[in-house]
Amino acid sequence: MCGIAGMFWVPGAERYVADLLFAIQHRGQESCGISVRRDDDTIATQKQMGLVKHVFTPETLDRFTGLSAIGHVRYPTAGSSDILNSQPHAIPLPDGSTLALCANGDIVNYAEWRTRLEHEGVTFTSNNDGELIARLIAHRHAVEGLTIEEAIARAQSDLKGAFSALLIHRERMYAFRDPHGFRPYVMGHLTWQGTGEMPAEGTCFASESCAFGIIGARFVRELKPGEILKLERNRPVTTVAVNGLRPRHSVFELIYFSRPDTLTFGEFVHDMRKKIGATLARGDRDIPPGDDLVVMAVPDSSNFVALGYAAEKKALFDMGLIRNHYVGRTFIRPHQEKRDEGVKQKFNPLPGFFPGKRVILVDDSIVRGTTLRKIVRMIKTNGAKEVHVRIGSPRVTGSCFYGIDTPTRSELIANNKSIAETAEYLSADTLRHITLPDLLSLLARPDDFCNACFSGDYIYVPDSFVKTNAPGC
Ligand code: AMP
Predict the structure, then answer these.
(1) Shared domain check, 275 and 249
(2) What is the pTM of this model?
(3) How far is the CA of 405 from the centre of ligand 1 (A)?
(4) pLDDT, tens digit, for every residue of 231-253?
(5) Atom of ligand 1 nearest to the CA of 364
(6) Domain check: are 319 and 405 in the same one?
(7) What is the CATH number of the domain that holds 224?
(8) Which of 32, 104, 182, 243 could serve as 402's disulfide partner, Cβ 3.0–4.6 Å?
(9) Structure confidence at residue 464 (pLDDT)
């Protein structure tokens, strides 16, 4: 998973993009980058390993400024954790111009297209999907003579998988999305106190709508699946084409990945999570009420699910674990040892909270089971009488090939253990997940969602059906 952001035709666009990226830092914490179009029509790119606030200091931003900028935060995938795979990718074209592109997603037929382009003489500098999209468009524009928008449209039909992308070329910016709209993608509007000839408004883009608040921009709308938007100086934003197919929005964004203050795929994330919690509680009649019963979230991703659960069950919601916010998302660390370490550093129990309590512990999902196992043990060691685990997603039985870096099938606990065995492994007294039909019943348009990681209903699979830790993002 990764995140993208862009700002078109506003002075200091790179600062706005840095702020937008900061707001979606949860989508990727390994590296970040920004490309800026400068007034002399060159594109400057700065990318580095590390968090947005560390990389894009005011001094760094002072060194490259312009009226349009795009940026990216990268989520690490094992084996590809390096600066070469970070984005945006800036590709020099034979006419002296540069094309810069960043994308969030995963291309399922990456190998096929990389090989084809290499046969045609294209050289790659990374193993990253974003670079493939950039090189394909650049090649078709520079060598085959297609316009940028024609090249984007061709890429939308040739490349299978997920991509929400932004491209700068000369004075133009393009925002485009794969035909199924796997990953979230929104457009916003910024009114700026312009002076003189400078524009008084600008258009911005981000993976998640929660980003717009930080810069005072207004949410305009989501991009349509397959949409290509063109942004030109002093012209309204135009939709060049909508090459959409059946939507396959990632349901996992609503369950876990997106921030609760985001609106995506037509749903308020916080609201959806509360509904998931309430649905779980309605099916849960075996846990008797009592003063010793407390509903708790694994902070922070399941807070709203737990709130929904507690409200429906009329039970007390409380917080027995404190999360250290400086640890970040432990799952998105590339190596297992680092993940284990992260879990220990991340959560600490409130002293004196647990003795004598029956805890309903709510989490968003179980993937490998690493996190919950440690947390349940921590809670029990601290005196809880019972721990009942409730999960806001169905069992994860398949890898995601569309941008969420879930592990291989064999690492997924749901493929190795039954519910009872998983409960035992976690030391939980009981374990329940929301069912897929119940989850789908909460969505306004359930047929528009991809739920392959729960159902195995994949629209495309990579050739080998093995998650290769390909470059993704
Ligand atoms: P695990 O220890 O592997 O079971 O991790 C499960 C936890 O990691 C979940 O409760 C989520 O909070 C989080 N998570 C699930 N899927 C992902 C993902 N693809 N990337 C990052 N974090 C995830």
Answers:
(1) no
(2) 0.94
(3) 9
(4) 999 999 999 999 999 999 999 99
(5) 10
(6) yes
(7) 3.60.20.10
(8) 182
(9) 57
More confident of the two residues 76 and 190: 190
Same domain for 138 and 278, yes or no, is no
Chain segment 16-34, per-residue pLDDT in tens: 999 999 999 999 999 999 9
> Are 248 and 276 within one domain?
no
Query: What angle in degrees, to the nearest 10, is found between the helix axes of 148-158 and 129-142?
Result: 130
- Which is more confident, 343 or 283? 283
Q: How far apart are CA 18 and CA 77, in angstroms?
A: 23
Residue with tokens 């739920």: 451
Q: Which atom of ligand 1 is nearest to the CA of 370?
A: 2
302 lines ligand 1 (CB under 6 A): no
* Ligand 1, atom nearest to 301 Cα: 12
Specify whether 324 is located in the same domain as 234: no
Ligand 1 and 405: CB distance under 6 A: yes
Do residues 206 and 354 share a domain?
no
How many helices (H) and strands (E) the chain has is answered by 16, 24
Is-catalytic flag, 450? Answer: no
For ligand 1, say whether the CB of 393 is within 6 Å of any of its atoms: no
Ligand 1 centre and the CA of 184: distance in Å?
19
pLDDT, tens digit, for every residue of 290-344?
999 999 999 999 999 999 999 999 999 999 999 998 876 555 555 556 555 667 7
- The whole-angstrom separation of Cα 133 and Cα 193 is 36
Binned at pLDDT 50, 70 and 90, residue 466 comes out as very low
The total number of structural domains in the chain stands at 2
- Domain match, 103 and 27 both: yes
User: What distance in angstroms lies between residue 453's CA and the mean position of ligand 1's atoms?
Assistant: 13
Decide if 365 is inside a domain: yes
Q: Hey, CA dihedral for 70, 266, 262, 467, is it positive or negative?
A: negative
Average pLDDT over residues 372-380: 96
Is 365 touching ligand 1 by the criterion CB < 6 Å?
A: yes
The residue annotated as part of the active site, out of 2, 102, 204, 450, is 2
Indicate which CATH number applies to the domain containing 438.
Answer: 3.40.50.2020
Q: Residue whose CA is closest, atom 3 of ligand 1? A: 368
> Is any atom of ligand 1 closer than 6 Å to the C-beta of 222?
no
Q: Averaged over 118-137, what is the pLDDT?
A: 96
Going from the Cα of 78 to the center of ligand 1, the distance in angstroms, rounded, reads 15
Cα-based angle 56, 205, 30 (whole degrees, multiple of 5): 40
Domain stops at, among 218, 253, 288: 253
User: pLDDT (tens digit, 9 = 90+) per residue, 409-451?
Assistant: 899 999 999 999 999 999 999 999 999 999 999 999 999 999 9
Q: Is 177 left (phi over 0), alpha (psi -120 to 50) or beta?
A: beta
Please determine, for residue 79, whether its predicted confidence score (pLDDT) is greater than 50: no
CA of 47 to the centre of ligand 1 (A): 26
279 and 237 in a common domain = no
Q: Which domain holds residue 291?
A: 269-449
The radius of gyration of the chain's CA atoms, rounded to the nearest angstrom, is 23
Q: Which atom of ligand 1 is nearest to the CA of 367?
A: 4
Stretch among 91-95, 160-164, 196-200 having the lowest mean pLDDT = 196-200
